[in-house]
Amino acid sequence: MSSDAPVLELADEGAARAQHLAAKQGVYDLVQEAVADRRERLLRGEAPQDLVGLMAAAEGRDGISPAMVSDNLFNIIIGSDTTERWIGNAIVRLATNPQLSERLRAEPGRLEPALQEVMRIDTVAQVIMRRVKAEESLLGGQTLKRGDQLVL
């Protein structure tokens, strides 16, 4: 199996998959365009003015490759969605539980563990269904056959 052939695939191979892949490609293209723009600015002698520029300027230093710059920026963009949802969940939890809110105001040292609990209880992680694409795969000691469904 080649490295570009995933073992798992989206359960819905129709329009949902096409929409997902198009959105992912759009974000990736946006990151690539921003990095290319900052590289051009650096070549013109401009100093980096933002995170993208700083990361582009770091290429070639300490083993930082162009792919590492793009991949890290892509992950930052994707991570902002889950962070936003987690903050929203924390606000809702505090707004709907006045006793918890009062306790955290009285005992600010409990804020961090409380937020970790919100992350655990009110998770922002999506459940994703996948089907095994390979003829046979091994995962956690379990044999998976082509077509088996997984919940990730």
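That was protein one. Protein two is written in the same sequence-then-structure order:
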Amino acid sequence: MLRFIFARVGGGILVVLAATTIAFFLLRAAPGGPFDGEAKMSAEVKRNLEKSLQLDKPLYVQYATYITNVVQFDLGQSIKRRQTVNELIAKQFPYSLKLGAFALTFAVLFGVDRDRKHSDFIPITRNLHPNAENFLCIEFHLTIEVISHAAFV
């Protein structure tokens, strides 16, 4: 059992490492740079900004720095909001937690198929009220409202 747990945890770590590596290199391969949308700046100012963000170093050094910071949960500074990313995540975490709990509750209550003899589009609805499809549409609408509210708060 312990071997199974270690295999799962190790596999999870490899998946996270692969995802962060792919995201890092895809962002670096994208055309443009982090300052292209800003107002025109002199070459000296741009060079100083790149130096402060370590964008003037080779790609492998940037990647090593990035992975080291991610492992230490140092997600850096938001350029746009002038706060650390950790502060931004902590501020929005309660909304994400509420949304996740709502989604999990919704999935458990309405996504569990108790009757496997038939294959309806929404199998749990035949055990509910005859207008259950309408109820699920209302629930879907409320879910979208919660998501849109959490995204813009």
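Residues 118-125 have pLDDT under 50 and may be disordered. Keep this in mind for the problem set.
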